[in-house]
Amino acid sequence: MRRLIAVCCALALALGVGAAYYLQAPTDAALRDMARENPVNPRPSVALWGSPSLLGEMVQAQGRTVGFLLGSSELGQSAEDSAHPVRFFTENDLGFDLISVGAGGYQSLWGAIEVGALDECGALPEKKVAFLIGDQWFMNEAGCTPEAFMNSFSEESFRECMENPGLTAETKAQIRERVIALGVDAQTVSDLTDNSVVAWANRAVADFVSGGERRGLLAEGLAANGPLERYGDSVVEPDWDALDRQAVAEGEGACTNNDYGIYNEYFDTYVSDKPWGQYYEGDPFADWSETEFSDLRLFLAVCEELNITPLMVIEPVNGEYYDIQRYTKESRLEFYDKLRQVLDEAEVDYVDLSMHDYDKYYLRDVMHLGWKGWVQINRALCEFYGAGVSAAEPTASSGHADGAAEDNDVPGQTSAQRDADAAADEMLEVEGAGKEVMEGEGERS
Hints:
Blueprint: H1 2-24, H2 28-37, H3 46-49, H4 52-62, E1 66-71, H5 73-76, H6 85-91, E2 97-102, H7 108-120, E3 128-133, H8 146-152, H9 155-163, H10 169-181, H11 186-193, H12 197-223, H13 240-254, H14 264-271, H15 290-305, E4 309-314, H16 319-322, H17 329-346, E5 349-352, H18 371-384, H19 434-444
Parallel strand pairs: 1-2, 1-3, 3-4, 4-5
Helix pairs in contact: 1-12, 2-4, 2-12, 4-7, 7-9, 7-15, 11-12, 13-18, 15-17
């Protein structure tokens, strides 16, 4: 009896706290009004990442082209680097606004759900999305870890994705299967995808208990938005050569204690004691995750079914560092070839930076984009989203990008891939299980 009373008291307390949040939090209508009043945020709050409906309101209220850049931990770093997209597209009017979404552990499956949800909520009127592919996603045989996925999972995004009539029943079933496999409760998945009275009641109860707190966080994120003054007729193509020179200067200034193009703080903290120049002598790593490749194909299938044009980015790594791990040049060439094959089969465009594994300042550390790398991507984004900036050549497309080449005149390589820009500083958060893999390899080396 005492146990039953305790359970009832705990339930009453939970409902009481939920009711307090629920009554104090802004309504859904109020949140939509806030989104329309403060539509611009190059780097929305984490709460807003999981609310495609409010992102849709922001985009539709902006009155001009808004592009999305999805990725992982490279987007979570501070925008002190002058070429980091969050800073670059805030300080430079290229005729469109860019919203960057993603953090460490946000991988292919999350991207598939997010794109389906954004499309359903009207956030992709241009039917375009850019996606940064993290090499570290594929280092764990199981792909995305349950811990990483649950950190990125949004019930609202999942439900909106499942509501999208453009997706086939087969694709939705594959997404549901993967979501459950990565730790989302099967009953929760059922409640989010079922339109029965019972499922509606379950969603209503869940919203009553925790929805108030969620709406409070959304309101805080929207309140932080500041409208940017944009003038569509003021678009001037950047001097990409000058930006490239600035990138080199910033990189040189940030990397003064090593010869590997790694910014000082990272080098001292993480890799100064590594056996540089001592190449790994064992068998090259060959277990690139088929599960993650499958999730990437699922992302591409979502784009195809919804008639969304993706711009994929193959990121480089620091070759000098990876060559002393199991991820040798031979191993990476195998990975890059497989990745290009998947993209070619899907017939999508991609920017291939894999040929820059040994070039300084394309990365800021051993795996996160920086300086020159961001300039190339910024230029590719300008070409991709139009915006009045001339595109001398099309973005590298399937069947043309040659990631094994070392020089800059690779057939099919874009003008964006031959230029670069600026940035420097800040820390890493390695995507998903890539962190454990890399740290473990470093200890064994």
